[in-house]
Structure formats: C-alpha cells, structure tokens
Specification:
- The radius of gyration is 20 Å and the shape is globular.
- The protein is 38% helix and 14% strand.
- It is α/β, with parallel strands linked by helices.
C-alpha cells in the first residue's frame, strides 16, 4: 500500500477524491500480500462497485497502524453473489457464512470478507457509500475506501464482549471529524440515535480538549431528543436491543427474562 505518492493517478475510479493516507496496517501473514494484491486486481477488473473498509480505511484516516489478517470488501447485496461466483470460477474456495450479510473468499489460510450489510441488519451497503468514498492505492491497485461518515456508522454497533470498536469510532472522530458529514451520519443513525449519542459522549469524555470536533448542533439535537424521551412513560413491550450488539451476550434476556428479540414479541409490562 502506498501511503503517499503525489504521482498516483486515479485509473480505475476517475472522479473519486484521492486521500493522502496517513498510515497503512501491517499484514499478520506477510506472505499473504500476493493473494490480496491479486484479489484487488480481479475486483477492479470485474467492474462491480466495491469498497475497502476495516483496518485499511481506519489506518488511512487516523494514522493507526496495527496488524490485520484479512481484507474487508464492502459491496451491494445484489453484487455479493456475483463477486463470490467470479472468484469461484477462478478456482478460489468460497463460503457464505451468513446470507444476511457475509461471504468469504479463500486461498489456503488466507481470505477476504465480502460484506454487504451489518450482522444486525441496520447497515445495508447502498449508493451513498460509493458516492462519498475516497481513493487510495493498495498493493499497486487504486481502490476506493469507505468514507469517514460510513466508517463511523460501520463500527457503531460492534460492541461484543470479545470485540469493541468504540476506540475506532473515537479515533476517526478525532482525526477525520472535518471529513464527516454529520447530517448524513445522523440520518444513518436516526432510529438508533441513542447509540450515536453514546459514542459522542464517549468521545467527549476521552478527549475533553477536543469536544468541539463534534458540532454543537449535533449534541443539542441528540440531547433534546433525550430530554423529550425522559418526559415520556417507558414502552409497554419489553425489548432487549442489546441483541443488536451481541446475540450471545444478551441471549439470556430473550430466552429466560421475557424480553423481545430485535424482531418478534416478548412479554408485556404488568404495571
């Protein structure tokens, strides 16, 4: 991956802003570079829209360098089967891990993920993702990466016991707040505005001197929603939305404690 190359010309994606990447991740298995370089060339030649996300995007925006074991390739739901079928025709092993959001392409122990939504269904990959992408060079190929707005959205719900991406959200706000479209982010998180508020309060606590990185109107809007919510009675249906963070960690809530899952019905309050 080229972190800075002023002579780099966008060939595959004309019109997409070129980002001067602040850093690049390291490969957990350095010998996997040939596989990833070949995969990106094939994806570009295939011609279907895709984005590179995950650690590569985080490094590009924040300057954080850390090991990665794979690539996260984002595409539209209608294209993910085309991507898997293409690599299958080339002799790669493919796997549909979860038809709701995730497929994989393998070459031996090396692989990349093909992601078209989030595991909890809140984040379908759509046109706006591509309209607001940036471009970097990775293993010799020009590649579009997710925009910082979408990068934050993609990480807000990753809150499992063994994996928590809150630090990635905070670091992206710290280093790329001026590139974030806050109106669009609020639109993405409209139904789950409390999750966004939690991340923004988390950021303010972590970086008290950088509170102004978050526009005041965003905080005022979210706090006004909270104030109005506090005036209302609690909902009648007992719901555990923690299942949107982790199905495992909140399993007891729906199996034994009478809370509704993300879908379906639970017990009614008795008061």
């Amino acid at each position: 991956m080229t972190v800075h190359n002023p002579d780099f010309t966008p060939i595959a994606h004309p019109g997409v802003p070129i980002l001067d990447a602040k850093a690049e991740p390291t490969l957990q298995y350095p010998e996997s570079e040939a596989f990833y370089a070949e995969a990106l060339r094939e994806l570009n030649q295939l011609g279907l829209p895709f984005l590179l996300a995950g650690t590569y995007a985080l490094s590009a925006y924040t300057g954080i360098t850390r090991p990665t074991k794979d690539l996260d390739i984002f595409c539209k739901a209608g294209d993910y089967t085309r991507v898997l079928s293409h690599f299958k025709s080339l002799g790669y092993a493919v796997e549909i891990e979860d038809d709701r959001w995730l497929g994989k392409v393998f070459k031996g122990r090396y692989f990349f993920d093909v992601i078209f939504a989030s595991s909890n269904g809140t984040m379908p990959i759509g046109d706006q993702w591509f309209e607001n992408a940036r471009q970097i060079e990775v293993f010799g190929s020009p590649v579009r990466i997710v925009g910082p707005t979408e990068l934050v959205w993609s990480k807000c719900f990753i809150q499992l016991r063994h994996r928590y991406d809150g630090a990635d959200v905070a670091h992206t706000i710290l280093k790329a707040h001026d590139l974030i479209d806050w109106h669009r982010l609020l639109g993405y998180m409209e139904v789950h505005w409390e999750v966004l508020l939690m991340h923004l309060l988390n950021f303010r606590w972590i970086y008290p001197t950088e509170r102004d990185n978050i526009p005041r109107w965003v905080m005022n809007e979210l706090l006004d929603r909270l104030a109005k919510q506090l005036e209302l009675p609690p909902p009648q249906m007992k719901v555990c939305r923690g299942r949107m963070f982790s199905r495992v960690d909140y399993e007891i809530d729906v199996k034994e404690w009478g809370f509704a899952d993300v879908g379906g019905e639970g017990e009614w309050r008795n008061d």
